[in-house]
Structure formats: structure tokens, C-alpha cells
């Protein structure tokens, strides 16, 4: 392609193609304007019955969205978590299904509306100076009004319009109701300063609750640990809350690999290389459970904070700014691993009452 440089810089100076490279040719050999392809009518453009079917389909999809929103609110109110794992799963499933139906209804209805009912003619608007005169403004307003009327939003299809606005207006309610319902929750942050662990509480395997003997823990092995408690208590709502604060990861190292084996007061917090630390990351509270045996590093999968188990679970990488709280352990007369006391510091991420 080359540009005819011998003509004035006006509408006639367009890109042309010569018979040979580098040869300028006249206006007669310019590319013809292909224009807009011939408009192909859809079935809904030519068949009123098809248009009515499409309108009913879109309306039903919006109504389905409304029902999904209402269903999620009903599930939140009528099926609250009862403290058991199955109860939490059922409540979450029902609320999630309601929100999914609500969003899918709006999305699919909008797509079908655009493809079947809204105008689909291609239009061309010539470029012009940014500053327009009054006549151009009048034409632009008329084009906008024509397009709005052609979309079917105003003037006709009143039922569809009502379903559309109702679905959009109701969906935020499905999100607002759970948020408002959580305002009255427990905001007592001091509850995180203490857990179920106390002197003599046996360490048990999560989730079976079977107590662990020191002889069962081999070098390099990893155990997910919870406090031993009764079967009846594990079926209560309180157990879910208490367990979430008391979960522990226990590892056995060679005793000579431990670089720090004592509390600040000089008490031994481990037993023959067995150490136990809170599983709750001190960054934002994700479960820390990826253990690398060769380096003794414990990795948080959320933001890659890394803790050195051999050195009091100190932070060696990542955004966490404090080590994992250690659970001081020992063994009882029967050889079972037991806690010496609760964690020496609050578990979980930093909050506003702590500097770190």
C-alpha cells in the first residue's frame, strides 16, 4: 500500500494500491467501500409468535432469578448451621444454590434478551469534530431514543420489564440479609486469647478423636491434632467454634535438630523431639499444614508464609510477622501425649490489641 502524495490533503487522498510496489495510482483504483452487509432477519424479527415466545422465556428466567434470591434468603433464615459438619454443609449448599440460580437467571435472561429481542442492525457513524452543532445533537438524541425503543425496554413488554427490574433489585437482598444477620455476632476478640487446651488435656487425632501415645509418633511423621473430648461434646455447636481455635500440627524431629527447645521461662515445651504448634497462620488465619521434612519448614498455602519448626516456628519467609504459637506438651503416666497448658500467646493473626 502507498499514499498518493501528489494530491491535496483532502478526502481524495486515500490509501490506494498500485499495480507495482511503490507506484501511486489515481482515485479510480481506490478500494471500494464494502459498506454494511445485508441485514439478516432473525426469526423473532419476522414471526410475532417467535418474538412472544422469546419474551416469555426471558420473563420466566427473570422470575426464576427472583425465586432463587427468595430461596437463598429462606435457606439462610430457616436452615441455620446447627454446629455439626453436616448442618453447616446443608446450610451452605442451600444458600449457594439459591444465589447460583439467582445469578444464572439474570445472566442467561440478559443474553437471550440481547440475542432474540434487542435490535441487531449494524450502524455506521461518520467521524466528525468533537464540537457538534445543535442539529447534530438533535440527531444523536433521536438515534438514542430510537435505539432505546428498539430494545423493547420502554413502551412495550411491560411484564418482561417488570421481571427484569425486580430480579436486579432483589438479588442484592440475598447478600445483604446474611451481612445484616452477622452484625450481631460475637465480636469478643479476647476469646482468641484462650482455647480448650489446659494442663492434662490429651492430644487426639483429628477428626477421630483417638488419643496419641508418644510411641506412636515416629521421626518425620506429622499429625493433625485436636483436644480429646467426649463424643457428645463433638456433636454440639460450641465444639465447632472451640475446635477452630485449638487445632494443632504435631511433628517429631530428631532431638538434635531442635534449635530451641525451651520456653522463655526455661521450661521444656517438647517431648523427645515431638513439637506441637497452632495450625492457624499468624498472617490471616489460613490453615498451615504443608510440612517439608528435609528443611523442617511449614508452609501456609494461602500466601506462602513459611515457618521453621526446628526453631520455634519462626517466620523465615512470607508476610506473616510472628511465629506460630507453640503448645507445650509432655506425656502422662500411661505414655499419652498431653498439654502442659494452653498456648502461651493468642493464636491466629494479629489484631488491634497486639503490636504484632
Structural features:
356 residues, alpha+beta, Rieske Iron-sulfur Protein, 2 domains, 4-stranded antiparallel beta sheet, 12% strand, elongated, disordered N terminus
What's the helix and strand layout?
Elements: E1 2-3, E2 15-16, H1 43-46, H2 48-78, H3 85-116, H4 134-150, H5 158-181, E3 203-205, E4 222-227, H6 237-246, E5 248-252, E6 274-278, E7 290-292, E8 297-299, E9 306-308, E10 314-317, E11 329-331, E12 337-339
Antiparallel strand pairs: 1-2, 3-4, 4-5, 5-6, 7-8, 8-9, 9-10, 11-12
Helix pairs in contact: 2-3, 2-5, 3-5
Q: Can you give a write-up of this model?
A:
- With 356 residues, this protein is an alpha+beta fold.
- It folds into 2 domains: 43-181, no CATH class; 190-339, Rieske [2Fe-2S] iron-sulphur domain (Rieske Iron-sulfur Protein, 3-layer Sandwich).
- 33% of the residues lie in helices and 12% in strands.
- It contains 6 helices and 12 strands.
- It has helices at residues 43-46, 48-78, 85-116, 134-150, 158-181, 237-246, and strands spanning 2-3, 15-16, 203-205, 222-227, 248-252, 274-278, 290-292, 297-299, 306-308, 314-317, 329-331, 337-339.
- The strands form 4 sheets. A 4-stranded antiparallel sheet has the order 3-4-5-6.
- Strand 9 (306-308) and strand 10 (314-317) form a beta hairpin.
- Helix 3 packs antiparallel against helix 5.
- The chain is elongated.
- The two termini are 67 Å apart.
- Residues 1-22 have low confidence and may be disordered.
- Residues 1-49 are annotated as: Disordered.
- One of its GO terms (molecular function) is oxidoreductase activity, acting on paired donors, with incorporation or reduction of molecular oxygen.
- Keywords: 2Fe-2S, Cell membrane, Disulfide bond, Electron transport, Iron, Iron-sulfur, Membrane, Metal-binding, Oxidoreductase, Respiratory chain, Transmembrane, Transmembrane helix, Transport.
- Its main location: membrane.
- Belongs to the Rieske iron-sulfur protein family.
Amino acid at each position: 500500500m502507498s499514499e498518493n502524495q501528489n494530491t491535496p490533503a483532502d478526502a481524495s487522498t486515500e490509501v490506494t494500491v498500485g499495480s507495482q510496489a511503490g507506484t501511486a495510482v489515481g482515485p479510480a483504483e481506490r478500494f471500494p467501500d464494502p459498506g454494511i452487509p445485508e441485514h439478516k432477519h432473525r426469526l423473532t424479527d419476522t414471526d410475532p409468535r417467535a418474538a412472544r415466545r422469546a419474551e416469555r422465556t426471558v420473563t420466566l428466567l427473570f422470575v426464576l432469578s427472583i425465586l432463587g434470591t427468595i430461596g437463598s434468603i429462606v435457606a439462610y433464615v430457616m436452615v441455620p448451621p446447627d454446629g455439626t459438619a453436616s448442618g453447616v454443609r446443608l446450610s451452605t449448599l442451600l444458600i449457594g444454590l439459591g444465589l447460583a440460580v439467582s445469578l444464572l437467571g439474570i445472566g442467561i435472561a440478559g443474553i437471550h434478551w440481547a440475542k432474540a429481542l434487542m435490535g441487531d442492525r449494524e450502524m455506521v457513524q461518520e467521524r466528525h469534530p468533537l464540537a457538534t452543532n445543535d442539529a447534530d445533537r438533535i440527531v444523536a438524541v433521536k438515534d438514542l431514543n430510537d435505539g432505546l425503543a428498539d430494545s423493547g425496554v420502554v413502551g412495550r413488554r411491560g411484564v418482561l420489564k417488570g421481571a427484569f427490574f425486580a430480579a436486579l433489585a432483589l438479588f442484592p437482598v440475598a447478600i445483604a440479609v446474611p451481612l445484616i444477620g452477622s452484625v450481631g455476632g460475637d465480636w469478643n476478640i479476647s476469646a482468641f486469647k484462650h482455647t480448650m487446651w489446659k494442663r492434662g488435656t490429651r492430644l487426639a487425632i483429628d477428626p477421630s478423636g483417638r488419643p496419641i501415645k508418644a510411641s506412636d509418633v515416629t521421626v518425620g511423621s506429622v499429625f493433625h491434632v485436636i483436644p480429646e473430648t467426649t463424643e457428645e461434646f463433638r456433636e454440639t455447636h460450641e465444639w465447632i467454634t472451640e475446635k477452630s481455635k485449638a487445632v494443632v500440627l504435631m511433628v517429631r524431629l530428631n532431638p538434635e535438630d531442635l534449635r530451641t527447645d525451651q520456653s522463655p521461662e526455661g521450661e521444656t515445651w517438647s517431648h523427645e523431639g515431638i513439637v506441637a504448634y497452632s495450625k492457624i497462620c499468624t498472617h490471616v488465619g489460613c490453615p498451615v499444614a504443608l510440612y517439608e521434612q528435609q528443611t523442617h519448614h511449614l508452609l501456609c498455602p494461602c500466601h506462602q508464609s513459611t515457618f521453621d519448626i526446628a526453631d520455634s516456628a519462626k517466620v523465615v519467609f512470607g508476610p506473616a510477622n510472628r511465629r506460630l504459637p507453640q503448645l507445650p506438651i509432655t506425656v502422662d503416666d500411661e505414655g499419652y501425649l498431653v498439654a502442659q497448658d494452653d498456648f502461651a500467646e493468642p493464636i491466629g493473626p494479629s489484631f488491634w490489641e497486639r503490636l504484632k
